[in-house]
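Researcher: Please translate sequence to structure tokens.
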Amino acid sequence: MEVKELGHVVLYVRDLERSRRFYGDLLGWKEIPGMNEGFPAAAFSSGRTHHELLLIEVGPDAAPIPRGRRIGLYHFGLKVGESDAELRDARDRLMKEGAKIVGASDHGVTHSLYIEDPDGNEIELYIDVQPARWKDDPAAIFAPTRPLRI
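Model: Translation complete:
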């Protein structure tokens, strides 16, 4: 067996409507219509595949994500453009909308902003800076991280 690509991410969320607005309205993912009535979920796609994100509502009493070092998901990355100008536009929109920005890094091969969704899931929003570099030298992704200046 060989994995060909990451297909989708499924997240449990406390409030489906709040998360639907965050991922759809703020991040600009397209919601896929026609989820089953009675099943509190929403699916989103960029158009690359049938769905890349599925949100399943678990209600307000669900346990929060533990803070600190833990097992499980750290973050997932979403490519938001091809240029620093697009990343700046994303940053400015996030700030205007009051999104929680928790970091910004220059990884050499990418420029990245880190945000949290309404339930505390961390998301990396990035652009590829030097795609040819990491294609020619896969170890380039382990370059020292520097502060992001965009």
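Researcher: Any highlights?
Model: The chain has two domains: 7-59, 75-150.
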